[in-house]
User: What shape does this take?
Amino acid sequence: MDGIVNYTFPREGQIAGWTPPINIWLILPAISFGALLSGILVYTFAPEAEGHGTDAAIRAFHKEGRIRPRVVIVKAVSSILTISTGGSAGREGPTAQISAGFGSVMSDVFKLSEHERRIAIATGIGAGIATIFKAPLGGALLAAEILYYRDFESEAVVPAFLASIIGYSIFGYFEGYDPIFSGAKISWNVTQIPFFLVLGVFCSAFGLLYIKTFYSTRDLFLGFFTKHNIPNHFKPLAGAVIIGLLVIALAHISHDTMIAALGGLGAGYGFIQLSLYNMLPLTVLLLLPFIKIITTSLTIGSGGSGGVFAPGLVIGGAVGGALGMLFHFFIPEIIPLATVPAFVIVGMISLFGGISNAPIAVMIMVVEMSGDFSLLVPAMGAVAISTILTGDSTIFREQVPTKAQSGAHRGEYNVEILEEIPAREAMTKKEDLICISPSDSAKEVIKIMDESLHTGFPVIENGKLVGIVTLRNIRKEMDNSEDVEIEEIMVRELVTINSSSSLEKALSVMMSNAIHHLPVVDDNDPEKLEGFITSTDIMRAYTKRMNQ
Assistant: This one.
């Protein structure tokens, strides 16, 4: 980008020395060339290296328990090609997958057990991210927090601490130990905390938009290339061409849209640094979150190799900067200009902390990156609000709810005990269930969910089981209309279990189908509902039997 396009990216840790490209059109061949080479490399030698590597590392922990050695090399080279030529992606996802791959490889060298291999993979995730972000504490905690969205891998904490320290020490010896973002003077006070809580609300909204856009784009590319029988090798190229044309178009509208468009390229950390110095106009801050969401979705959703962490921080930082500037414009006596950089940092934390289901680790990590630990106070409030509003929505689709759904902990359950307990003993019986009719509206079901605190219900018509509806179905399909009927959004292709089947089989069915609600039906009539069983019911029955 510097030598060919004559575009010097703004760099984190400094504000001088960046220049926009002289000929904006050169971005198109540069980003296209990088995407083409990356796509050919990945889909020829290691298809699992596509997309954002953190998810692949999480999947390896929960499922395969192994990462092929070639993935380490392919992920490194393909990510360099993607990011260095302007693809909107971060370094942390590839680093997480590469480091987890090292954990898997070294487990083979030292002939570690399967359980130890999985811990080594989790440790690699945390140590790699801790090193690349110069955030050893936050990265180590991320190894334990990022694997689940309602649980914590405590066994990974101590080895991740050690690995993070070693990685950080070696990396810092060559790259320096200064925080990633430095130099900006940040000021805030306790009376401003309510405004940071408002920021948490905005960050959750943009986080959900980020998730929705990213996975919709990925599905769109996958469906198009599959339908037209086009080799996947060219998917990243298609995304890159669209990005190049978008940037060129925005650059010809105005100076501010050009800056925002350039912020949509690469990792984007330099633009966070500029916003920390209040050097980005409000127009750019307002546009940048939308542009970054689009360019990241096109880069990684099309199969390009790179992480979603850095773009998420840029999106959150821009949201925080824009809201802080608006507050300063309307109430400068409460939010002075010196407080706007605090909104940038807290925005980074609250947006990505919410959508990654790792609020504690991300909060500590970003504070380490900025070098200002006083920001923990407003960040705690903002990320709490964002996490609550984001719910179980996640940018990392390979996360599982708890250890009960993880293949890494499958052996911890005493299979013999689970085999002794039939589903009918652990299930909630039909007469105690809340059953939904196909004609009920999504609005009515949401109200029932709020009152009962349950997130899934069987759908009954004329006394027969015809479907199941969960909170995730409603969120995914209702398209902002609460008047849609359950019949239109319920799952019809049911996964069920007989009432005489064991809890061991029920748990296996849940894990293989990535669900945690399972209708229990009559042994002789699959449409006759007898009850409902969840992973929580299985754990409760298991614990009760163990205590007898």
Summary: The chain has a mean pLDDT of 90. The chain has 23 helices and six strands.
